[in-house]
Amino acid sequence: MTTMTMTTGLSDVRPIGDQLRAWRQRRRLSQLELASEADVSTRHLSFVETGRSAPSREMVLRLAEHLDVPLRDRNLLLVAAGYAPVFDETPIEEPKMDTVRAALRQVLEGHEPYPAVVVDRFWNLIDANGAAAFFMEGAPPELLEPPLNVLRLSMHPDGMAKNILNLAEWRAHMIDRVRRHVALTADAALAQLYKELRSFPGDVGEAIAPPASHEVFVPLRMRVDGRELSFFSTIATFGTPVDITVAELAIESFYPADAKTTEFLRERAGW
Fold first, then answer.
1. CATH number of 16-81
2. Is 98 exposed, middle or buried (0-12, 13-18, 19+ CB in 10 A)?
3. Among 58, 142, 211, 261, which residue's Cβ finds the most Cβ atoms within 10 Å?
């Protein structure tokens, strides 16, 4: 397991009203729509956004909930409004996180012989099962140094990209996935990662081509040990997190998309 200590950066010093308005606009909600959903008056919301009224701690949390603001940024909103942060950010290696680590490990090991990884909000690797090792085989040491970023590893020309058979299709969808996360979170570091991924060589157009009519997902097609493999994946998160670290964890589980890939993975695991 690669452990990472994360800290909450309370660096956004814009007034609370400006921040709430920015989140509302990012979610494409009018003041009337947000006020109705949060059960507050449009007049009061307008006063909060313009700085004419100071929101209570409960009001900040209620609006943040309805705006689906990440826990990390809810702390920023609270600080901007003059209140203390309420969401902890516990390092994954702390004893308090023993139950979380055990749950992650159970899911990873239970998914064998198929690959599965745990990543944080930047797609940095937190943990992986043994079956995921072949994703990293042949990559240069600099791509494998902590924090190992799985998106960088998969799209870098010296990483997995050289073995991905449908690279343009895969990259286009993955980069669009990051773009949507940037739009949802307005995270500057994530935006920088998005810019870096787009700089890698490869044919990624502005529009994503529609999938073939016979497909129900965009597969990851790779050549490994001279064999063509095909995967699809699912993503799982914790259901009701109140800790920033837990809220930002995701498990991506890969499944064989055809019988040949199933056979390869079972043979590799000695099953």
1. 1.10.260.40
2. exposed
3. 261
Domain spans, the chain: 16-81, 95-269
> What confidence tens digit (pLDDT) does each residue in 18-47 have?
999 999 999 999 999 999 999 999 999 999
Distance CA 171, CA 163 (A): 13
**Tokens 């930047």 map to which residue?**
122
Kindly report the number of other CB atoms within 10 A of residue 222's CB atom: 22
Which one-letter amino acid corresponds to residue 56?
Answer: S
**147: preceding bond cis by omega (within 30 degrees):** yes
Report the pLDDT averaged over residues 193-213.
70
Q: The tokens 């998969």 sit on which residue? A: 154
Angle at the Cα of 202 (from 211 to 224), degrees rounded to 5?
A: 75
How far apart CA 52 and CA 55 sit, in angstroms, is 10
On the question of pLDDT at 4 being above 50, the answer is: no
Residue 91, both tokens? 């390092």
Whether the Cβ atoms of residue 173 and residue 218 lie closer than 8 Å to each other: yes
β-partners of residue 254 are 233
Tell me if residue 243 falls in helix, strand or coil: strand
Domain at 95-269: CATH architecture = 2-Layer Sandwich (3.30)
Give me the pLDDT at residue 2, please: 38
Structure tokens that stand for 189 in this block:
């570091």
Considering Cα of 52, then 58, then 60, then 62, what sign does the dihedral take? negative
Average pLDDT over residues 111-136: 97
- First-last CA distance in the chain: 24
> Could you give the CA distance from residue 208 to residue 196 in angstroms, rounded to a whole number?
19
Q: What percent of the chain has pLDDT over 70?
A: 90
Instruction: For residue 201, give both structure tokens.
Output: 């060589």
